[in-house]
Amino acid sequence: MGDVFAEAGRQLGRPRAYQVQVIGIEEGLLKSSSGLRLAVDATVRNQRGTIDTLLVAGSPSIDEMAGGAELHAWLRRQARTVRRYGSVCTGAFVLAAAGLLDGKRVVTHWNSTARLAAACPRARVEPDAIYLKDGKLFTSAGVTAGMDLALAMVEEDHGRELALRVARELVMFLKRPGGQSQFSAHLAAQTAERSAMRALQDHVLAHLRDDLSVPTLAARAGMSERNFARVFRSETGTTPAEFVENARIDAARRLAEESDLPVKRLADAVGYANVDGFRRAFARRLGVTLGEYRRRFVR
Questions:
Q1: C-alpha closest to that of 64 among 99, 41, 93
Q2: How far apart are CA 144 and CA 170, in angstroms?
Q3: Range ranked top by mean pLDDT from 19-33, 64-78, 217-231
Q4: What is the pLDDT of residues 218-264, one digit of tens each?
Q5: Nearest to 195 by CA among 207, 203, 186
Q6: Are the CB atoms for 162 and 12 separated by under 8 Å?
Q7: Distance between CA 119 and CA 39 in Å, rounded?
């Protein structure tokens, strides 16, 4: 993110247009998960002056680093006065612990969306977004999505033309096409708790070319269609039809990466008789066309 802000300042002819500070809980050096050490400019105890934009970074050890009452109180105070605040990746869990995500649309890394939704049920977690803005709250998906977020902030502050110049200089999309699902194994967060529903999900994943309509699946589960649909949604957070489509598109995504199958054979391999329907479902689920996906991810 610092690169985006630094480049924005350079393009403006004001290198210090965005002054980045590292604020820690304690004094000393912060050690990142990669071993990189960052000097702390201030702590929550001795930080002085106004903050324009406050962002909480994520970490693989975010549960241990979510902080205690002192940090949460400081964040709540700052949130009332800063122009905007937010998080990068799993930094959203710190904001959640401080009570700053309630009633908000938020996003975090795809692998943590279900956990964030459980930890903060009053937030509206949107699993496919790259970044989101809800009022003065900004949240982003993964670490590099923080750069997308920073670019959006530059655009908000100085307009599209400058943001586009920064994006070109840094070889970035001004607005990245598609959502997180093009990068994620997005079925991971849809595993049912009951063994009967898990077994049915396993059947779907192993028989993508079969008839996987609701009547057929309900019969296999020994339930009425209405009760099956209700139980399935309660257990997985999605409808049977959505799960089947996700499973088929996820399999198609992997096949597209691993083979050069033409689109008709690709569609057939995952249970689509209609190629146009397959193309529409692929674009709907992943936010990009099959052709664009292959250009981006297939060597």
A1: 93
A2: 13
A3: 217-231
A4: 999 999 999 999 999 988 888 999 999 999 998 998 898 888 899 99
A5: 203
A6: yes
A7: 31
State phi, psi for 126 to the nearest 5 degrees.
-110, 105
Q: What is the pLDDT of residues 268-279, one digit of tens each?
A: 999 999 999 999
All structural domains of the chain: 2-176 (3.40.50.880), 188-297 (1.10.10.60)
Instruction: Give the chain's count of helices (H) and strands (E).
Output: 14, 10
Non-local (6+) Cβ contacts of 139 within 8 A are 86, 87, 92, 95, 106, 107, 108, 131, 132, 149
Among 57, 61, 126, smallest CA distance to 92 is for: 57
Q: Which of 12-21, 30-39, 111-120 has the lowest mean pLDDT?
A: 30-39
